[in-house]
Amino acid sequence: MTNRTIHLTENPSSAKIAVIGLGISNVPLIRFLSRLGAKNITVYDQSESQQICARIDSLLASGMICKAVTGEGYLDEIGEAGYDVIFRAPAIRPDLPQLVRASENGALLTSEMELFFELCPCRIYGVTGSDGKTTTTTLIWKLLSAHYAGQSTKVWLGGNIGRPLIDHLSEIGPEDAVVLELSSFQLMTLRKSPNVAVITNISPNHLDIHKNYDEYIEAKKNIYLYQKEGDTVVLNFQNEATRKIADACLSEGRQVRLFSAYFNDTSAFDERAEGCGYLCGEELVYSSSLNNYRVDRRLLRVPGLFNAENLLTAIAACAGIITQEDIESVVSEFSGVEHRLEFVRELRGVKYYNSSIDSSPNRTIHTLSVFRKNVVLIAGGKDKNIPYDALGPAICEKVKALILVGPTSDKIEAAVRAADSQRKDMMKIYRFENYEDAVKCAYENSVPGDTVLLSPASTSFDLFRNFEERGNVFKSLVRALE
Length: 482
Description:
The protein is α/β, with parallel strands linked by helices. It has helices at residues 3-10, 26-36, 50-62, 97-104, 112-119, 133-148, 184-187, 213-225, 240-251, 305-318, 324-333, 361-368, 391-398, 409-418, 435-444, 467-479, and strands at 16-20, 40-45, 67-70, 85-88, 108-110, 123-128, 155-159, 177-181, 196-199, 232-236, 255-259, 275-280, 283-288, 292-296, 342-347, 350-354, 375-379, 399-405, 428-432, 451-454.
């Protein structure tokens, strides 16, 4: 724990604190700081939306904050305000000139997640990656929860998955376990690593925030860089970026477990690894000198090879703690996570699926792989400055009608037009500005046996607060169809 963190926790009433961003993680942070005894908290947020203003009014009325600064230029004076500690929201870059100036003037620049890592008393499992991290995080939590059921150990789920744990710290004991989903934004300035660090895969993503792909990869690496002796890193050995990381980690003598559902035996892995997970026929296998687990992938209630790999990853992360019975218990009940290939309803022979969490082309490619053909696809959203070329052939292979909404519509249509496929000329392409018209069009262009799929390949922030709101709007519109 840093000296200034110690000062904050031991003398909170004397600390001058700024909190930038009133999103999902920082409101619980403010509650935690207030309970700790902090008296001088100012919040900053560029938005002046009705929702943000309501949050500010509530925090001011409760006495948790003493001031709020909003609107254009909201950070202009922060560098000279004499703060002891500044907590930034994950998507606020730490190298903004105003924050650099504040640091030069003595402020500690940190975040809710960094403070949580400083204060958490128990073992932490952390999961990051470009795709699959929410499902993998959930599966690790479920496997550990199944193992510790009926015992004093409690397993906590949080992080980027939507539940900040900072204001639950007083309830978390040293014998508990915490499972966190960690985004590249949360990892950028993290200088502590979880005891078990998982990277599902890495591909270009969030390049609207990160300067380039290299910076994105470097942020992901923080999940294991600060591990201690005895800690474990779990890595995808088929993905190009994580394979390079695996080689570096093994060369450094780290404790590494490898996995890939695209390999069918141990010979494909680096022999220096502690253990490896693979798919042999229809059986998911994790093998090491100490632990061996096997599970029939056909028992999984969620479709797709990528979901089988998510389970394999979770087993590798929990190996040595969980039992074969724990795995079988979880597999028999796990039906997926909300907004990820979520079945909504069947109407007049057409099945509707919500995969709003698919915020990148790779995720949509994986989702489309589950279906045979005759897909009516709703896609598009906010641009993250990532390439869409590979999405074109996948759409041409499976999609009969493409319905586009949002700023990435041009990129997605261009990827389809550039694909080397005769099917692109038979595909109907529509464009709309809202989901009401998009869902109506999908309904009108589907016949019995078709699948209507929301898989945007883009973030939601053009029309919605988050992917959950986008998915819920879609589900509501689908359920209203007659």
